[in-house]
Amino acid sequence: MDVTLEAASLIDRVSALVDAAKAAGADAADAVAVRDRSTSVSVRLGKVESTEASEGDDVSLRVFVGQRVASVSATASSDPKVLAERAVAMAKVSPEDPYQGLADAALLAKAVRDLDLYDATAVSADQLKEDALEAEEAALAVPGVTNSSGSGASAGLGGMVLATSHGFLGQYVGSRFSRSASVIAGEGTGMERDYDYSSRLHFSDLDSPEAIGKSAGERAVRRLNPRKAQTGEVTVIFDPRVARGIAGHLAGAINGASVARKTSFLRDMMGKQVASAAITVIDEPARRRGQASRPFDGEGVDGQTLTMVDKGVLNHWFLSTSAARELGLTTNGRGSRGGSSVSPSSTNLSIEPGEQSPEALIASLRSGFYVTEVFGQGVNMITGEYSRGASGFWIENGALTYPVSEVTIASNLKDMFLRMVPATDLDRNYGTAAPTLLIEGMTLAGS
């Protein structure tokens, strides 16, 4: 696939949309085209369950008439003049919004950096099928595994082209490849399920199908014959898979849009201690081969690496242009395009590693709860209240002993961040990354 030629056609379309908006009476405008291509195969018990292929080119136009704004979305083949006239007519009858507008021209990316986001490797549907079957076969070969929930593999790409009426024009494309396996161990009411997966921008960086399947099977078997734990206060250690969710809650709490709406429990904490001194949080939009990397944000702004939390002290919000203006600040290039709207978000966010290995954290506890899965929606981002169903393994005398399920862990995220201790095992191959995390003083509800 010649992505250069495909991008050229989208550049022409977004440029035409911006020109049409100005001709229709807009004071300013920007247009974005999003391209998506994907192929996926899922199998179960040695048979193909589905093969899917999709592709789409969508455009959106945002126009500004004074302090009024409106947006429209359509397919890339739509008539620019018709879309522009409709958007301008909508803007003229919309309420005024003093915070909307294009990003300051001085903040726009001057050159689009090559972040090595695209891998041209062509992966056929047959290859995807073979990878999925190999992963499932490896999982079913693990002693104790009794059934498959399915295995899959996919390949695709996604790209964006952005044009603005004050002179910005940029585009980038990123590839994506994935493999996964999910299996069941045990029989009857004693069955347990678990999974593993690998997702990368470059095909050669993927974990092997055999490794993914074996890991999924071993994880499921380890969960067999779980017990409940006694109710009480407990030190919890979060497996990195779950710790990434904790990092995501922190990202949500320091999102400028939430702060402006007063829906974040950290809204009054800028410059203050929000986490333990062991916690430093980095956001890095231009990391090479990063899962969430981008050479410019949804408004064309050149985002730089930011230390969001430095030794526990909150330094920044995630800001788009509108969120920044509402807070009396300047965007830091975290505007994320969602169709025709722009809102702030993190990029490659990571809770930086600490000084102790995960094994050392576990060994330090006489008793505790090692959490490998949480479920339920019990997180209140306005108050910070945290209550989730959980499963994992009980820690006794510094070692993982027996599996635990059907318990609830609870605390407040404000307290959890202040008691957090990170381990050394940070894996940056995720858009939101975290190492193993230890948190004291949580409440466990069990038997």
Please tell me about this protein's structure.
- With 447 residues, this protein is α+β, with helices and mostly antiparallel strands.
- The chain has two domains: 3-219, 2-Layer Sandwich (PmbA/TldD fold); 226-447, no CATH class.
- The protein has helices spanning 3-23, 80-92, 125-140, 209-222, 240-253, 256-261, 321-326, 358-363, 413-418, and strands spanning 28-44, 47-65, 68-75, 145-164, 169-185, 192-200, 232-238, 281-283, 306-310, 313-314, 335-338, 341-344, 349-351, 367-375, 385-396, 399-412, 420-422, 432-433, 437-445.
- The strands form four sheets. It has a six-stranded antiparallel beta sheet with strand order 3-2-1-4-5-6. A five-stranded mixed barrel has the order 7-14-15-16-19. It has a five-stranded mixed beta sheet with strand order 10-9-8-13-18, covered by helices on one side.
- Helix 1 packs across helix 2.
- The longest helix has 21 residues, at 3-23.
- The protein starts with a helix and ends with a strand.
- The mean pLDDT is 96.
